[in-house]
Amino acid sequence: MSIFDNIKLPKLIHIVPSKFNGNIEIWQSGKTTKLIADGTVQSVNWDSPVAEKMVFGRMVQVLKQQEPNLRKVLVFGLGGGAMQNLISKSFPGVEIISVEIDPVMIDTAKEFFNLDQIPNHRVINDDAFRVVVEPEKFDLTIQSFDAVVIDIYCGSKYPDLGKSGNFFASIKKILHPGGLAVFNRIYLQSHQYDVDLFVKDLSEFFTDVNTTTVAGKTNSDNILIYGRA
């Protein structure tokens, strides 16, 4: 008998093509179900032992520290819904609205991550920029959100429009005065110059801008940037 006999290797259980995210893959390894889009880990099941240590878990920690009385939050980006699940568990009764452009991602989250079981959660299947610029078309009210979380990667690509002044101004408008905006950016060495400019530009629209790094395989795979409207 080998010492490796009881070791279970990660198993690919589902793969589906997406025009927005390349191939979306679901991998099973022990107690963790992992969603990978275009080679980048987008989500795990919310009750995985590693969930709270990953970037979406750290984003929820920022919400708990900065907005402890959170009642209404808008989340751009869905993945498998790990962050939405963790928000729901951390803030009982909170209203969550998610925006996701990729219908394949939404269907995958429903099939493998029990997305429909999150209470007080609505998913808008549309483009983040359209939603934030014309919120009334999606039954959203300006100055009505305690926090907005922006995690709008398609695979490992961050959209250029997500760096624009118009986008920042629209995010600020949908938050109530003093509300919290939290952005997730990849912070590998090749991204750092762009992200440093992003932080500088963001500071022209938001106050009290702060950052926190999230260590991955390198010293800082992601950086969370947050500020007040």
Which features would summarize this protein structure in a list?
229 residues, alpha/beta, Rossmann fold, seven-stranded mixed β-sheet, four-stranded antiparallel β-sheet, 11 strands, 32% strand
Order of helices and strands: EEEEHEHEHEHEHEHEE
Report, as a whole number of angstroms, the end-to-end distance: 62 Å
How many separate structural domains?
Answer: 1
**Order of strands across the widest beta sheet?**
7-6-5-8-9-11-10
Query: In the CATH hierarchy, what is the architecture at level 2?
Result: 3-Layer(aba) Sandwich
Which range best describes the helical content: under 10%, 10-25%, 25-40%, 40-55%, 55-70% or over 70%?
A: 25-40%
Q: Show unreliable segments.
A: none
Question: What fraction of residues sit in β-strands?
Answer: 25-35%
What shape does the CA trace take? globular
CATH fold description: Rossmann fold
CATH superfamily: Vaccinia Virus protein VP39
Q: Tally the beta strands.
A: 11
**Global mean pLDDT:** 90
Query: Count the helices. How many?
Result: 6
CATH class: Alpha Beta
Instruction: Give the helix/strand class.
Output: alpha/beta
Task: Characterize the structure shown.
- With 229 residues, the protein is an alpha/beta fold.
- It has a single domain (51-228), classed as Vaccinia Virus protein VP39 (Rossmann fold), CATH 3.40.50.150.
- The chain is 26% helix and 32% strand.
- It has 6 helices and 11 strands.
- It has helices spanning 55-66, 82-90, 103-113, 128-133, 165-174, 192-202, and strands at 11-18, 22-29, 32-37, 40-44, 72-76, 95-99, 121-124, 145-150, 175-186, 207-214, 222-228.
- The chain has a 7-stranded mixed beta sheet, with helices on both faces. It has a 4-stranded antiparallel beta sheet with strand order 1-2-3-4, with helices on one face.
- β6, α3 and β7 (121-124) form a beta-alpha-beta unit.
- α1 packs parallel to α2 (82-90).
- The chain is globular and about 50 Å long.
- 40% of the residues are buried.
- The mean pLDDT is 90.
